[in-house]
Amino acid sequence: MQLSGEGGAARAHRTVFHAGLSVLKSEGFSGLYKGLSAGLARQILYTTTRVGIYTTLFEKCSGPDGKPPGFFTKAGCALTAGGIGSFVGTPAEISLIRMTADGGLPVEKRRNYKNVFNAVSRISKEEGVLTLWRGCGPTVTRAMVVNIAQLVTYSSAKEQLLASGYFKDNIFCHFSSSMISGLVTTLTSMPVDICKTRIQNMKVVNGVPEYKGAVDVFMKTVRSEGLFSLWKGFTPYYARLGPHTVIMFLLLEQLNTSYVKAFVK
């Protein structure tokens, strides 16, 4: 949906349900999972790196009595973790974008990558290794925005809920904090995500790219499609990011608790 209506063209998908039905009709049920291998590779590379680095930095910056760091310190930890994790995961990210967008292209223009390994290999051979990091700037920017919104919001929401006296440090508190985090992350990261997606999916014709950079994407999108097009695809984006955020933090909290019980105490 983020690529639908690009450049002011007629929107191919009106709603998330229309998009889903279109994919089912044109590509079959398997089309809904196109790019799965790239999606899994991205999560393994990006998510584990950023969460691991953020958790480590958070603990290093906490006080000797276990007092959590302040907001700006947490933001700095999130920015660092997001930037590094995003850089590591960009090759899988660009493979995912291209594999999922392939079905919407004319048959003669489709890339037809078989899996993430085939995508990375062909991109390297056909377009050069550096193409695997095309759009790295907006990708890293988006990751920094996501990390501040997701990780810092979760930490702050959890602290506020516990301080209210109505919550205890349990699964319900973790669930509530992660729901707040997922919504804030979706609202703040979508404009950057659309810029990133369009840069990574663009074609270079006669040596001339469709977009000069993230600012060019932003300006052209707003000019031809309107300001609210920057939040195009909000429903499927939140439907993906919301559960992902909840499951990630619930698992992370349980694993941290198990680790402390087994190795610290």
Could you characterize what this model shows?
With 265 residues, the protein is mainly α. It is 69% helix and 2% strand. It contains eight helices and two strands. The protein starts with 15 loop residues before the first helix and ends with a helix. The mean pLDDT is 85.
Structural class, by secondary structure, is mainly alpha
Helix content: 55-70%
Beta-strand content estimate: under 5%
- Rg over alpha carbons: 20 Å
Shape: elongated
Q: What summary fits the major beta sheet?
A: 2 strands, antiparallel
DSSP strand count: 2
Query: Span from first to last CA?
Result: 49 Å
The side-by-side strand order for the widest beta sheet comes to: 1-2
Question: How confident is the prediction overall: mean pLDDT?
Answer: 85
Poorly predicted ranges = none
Order of helices and strands: HHHHHHEEHH
The number of distinct helices, counting runs of at least 4 residues, comes to: 8
Task: Briefly say what this structure is.
The chain has helices at 16-27, 36-61, 71-101, 116-127, 136-164, 171-201, 214-225, 234-264; strands at residues 204-205, 208-209.
Q: Can you give keywords for this protein?
A:
265 residues, mainly alpha, 8 helices
How would you summarize the topology of this molecule?
Elements (H helix, E strand, L loop, with lengths): L15 H12 L8 H26 L9 H31 L14 H12 L8 H29 L6 H31 L2 E2 L2 E2 L4 H12 L8 H31 L1
Antiparallel strand pairs: 1-2
